[in-house]
Write the structure tokens for this entry.
Amino acid sequence: MQKTALVCGAGGFIGGHLVKRLKVEGFWVRGVDMKSHEHNATVADDFILGDLREQEVVRQVINMPFDEVYQLAADMGGAGYIFTGENDANVMHNSAIINLNVLDQCHKEGIKRVFYSSSACMYPEHNQLDPDNPNCAENSAYPANPDSEYGWEKLFSERLYLAYNRNFGMECRVARYHNIFGPEGTWEGGKEKAPAAMCRKVAMAQDADTMEVWGDGLQTRSFLYVDECVEGTMRLLRSDFEGPVNIGSEEMISINALAKMVMEISGKSLGIKNIDGPIGVRGRNSDNRLIAERLRWAPKQPLRAGLEQTYQWIAAELTRRHNQAA
């Protein structure tokens, strides 16, 4: 009998890639989002345009006992959206309502396996002040002190999913994503993450131009290619480990060095101008000891390989747009 899966947030970046992977594995897939995918027609067997903040929509979407549910839907974005303070109420309200609605309806339908995508943004700010030595081990989450309201909502929702495991015998799985990137993701408009923003800026620049980078550029991050994220996500949902567990890369890099890596990929020689802007914590890097121990898995692709694919895709998108406008 064909297995069934539901992807909440299927119109988004990771959700779109996840739908494609599930189809390759032979699943019947329903996707739901309040928007269609920006860059590709969905390959889901059924795609519902709907707002998961509305209980009636959630009842329409979750009306059968899916074998696997992936809850990726959230109000989110890059530093230019999360750290300005201007979107805090929407971020907290929208994402919390979605999680409350989806999880409770899964419980009512007798669905056991639900994946929830939390974020490394829930880790305490005080453990991420040193850009060279951030502490993002899973057991460092408490005492809680996220650096954004986005992180606080993620922490609440983690506890919500694990409470349903304890109280209702569900088998929810919780992962903390660390900066997922790749083709077919948001690359402009303020919600894009650093790799996509760097690729866009470099692709649009002329040789010898100067590129603006927020902050002093010494802040550090690690970035995980989307295909590896999908692999870790599916392995976790199908495992006997509930989490929370990091899904990320341990290849840490400064933001200035990230910009220079994209320049090298492009073949362009650009200057860097560091300017004021929202930057989040000083350092963040995935600690992968727990996922290696419990799932016997670790990402393999180096950052540069993923950046090469992402840069080529964004450059092609810019060329396509230019040709359409001509």
The chain is about 40% helix and 15% strand. The chain has two domains: 4-180+224-247, 183-222+251-283+301-325. The radius of gyration is 19 Å. The mean pLDDT is 92.
